[in-house]
Every structure is written in C-alpha cells, then in structure tokens.
Amino acid sequence: MRRSILVFYGSYRRDRQGIKLARWITHAIAARGDHAELIDAKAVNLPMLDRRHSDYAAGEAPAAMEALANTIAAADGFVFVAGEYNGGFQPGLKNLVDHYLTQFAWRPVAIASYSAGPFAGIRAATAWRTTLGAMGMVVTSTPLSLARIGGAFDEAGAPAGEDGARIAKAFPRFADDLCWWIDAARAQRALVGPPF
After folding, report:
1. pLDDT (tens digit, 9 = 90+) per residue, 142-174?
2. Which of 57, 59, 189, 195 is deepest in the core (most CB within 10 A)?
C-alpha cells in the first residue's frame, strides 16, 4: 500500500541551502513509489505562535493553518530536514510544528540533518529527537546527516561530490527504516486505534 510521507523544512534564509536536501529527499521518496510532499515553513508562512490549531473552535482556524492540519493528520509518516542554527534547530520549522500536536501523534518520523560545516547538523538532529518524541512521534533510529551542504548538490539538484555520494548511498536504509515503522504504526492504528 502506498505511503503518504510529508517532508518538513524550515529555513527562512535568503540563500537557503537545505531546500536542496529537502527537495531531493521528497523526489527520492516518490521514486520509491510512495507519495511525498514537501512542507516548506516559509511557503506556509504561519504567524509566530499565538494560538495553536487546537485553540480554535472547529472551522474557525485560519485557512492555511486548517489546510496543513488536515494534511498532517492524513499522513502516514514524516521526515524533518533539520538545519543547525547556533547549535539548535531552525526557528521557522519549530514555529510551524508548535501550531499542532495531535495531528502528529502515533506516527513515525525520520530526521535528516545538515550543516555548512563538517558536523552535519547533528546537534539540531539531537534537539529534534527530544521535541518530536515529546509530541508523540516515534523517531527512527537511522539518521541521514549531510556535511558541507553547499557543494553536495549539482545545478539540477542531484547529489554531487563526495558528500553528495555519501548521502545518496545512505538514503535507502534511512527510507527503509522509516517505511518499516510507517507500516507497523499504520497496522497498529487500524487494529486498536490510538493508545489512549
């Protein structure tokens, strides 16, 4: 059965590099036969968190917030493409995520991290593991980490150079792990529903 996977990305910077990784992951998931959709926090453009989706009465949330709530709730699993800002995660993506809670629960999520330097966004990935777990998601154990993102993709968006080749080689296991958990969670939700 075809899976529905959302790929979240959250940089608002002018010359953002991580969008290349987010787009590539989205295409690579689709090439495996699953449905993949990129959710770009900058394009969604939710306001700084004042009221969560759940704070609104049914049908009263702003249209963009409501549409994304429905998209998240319908998905089988997620990928978070996590850039590292000063040792932490991107505020744009964190702001988007904080508008929701129950829509994410009881689904798996995989983290793909990146940085401009050699450490591949590992500190951001670690921070996201804690946050996503607290939101009720199962974080997969196979990370995807990309160092020196500025040179890792060619003009067409394909992996290039040593770092690009490394990420292309690591992707199948990353995706297999996520898909295993998606299938397990989907079967369990169909069998018994939410745990509480």
Report:
1. 999 998 999 999 999 999 999 999 999 999 999
2. 189
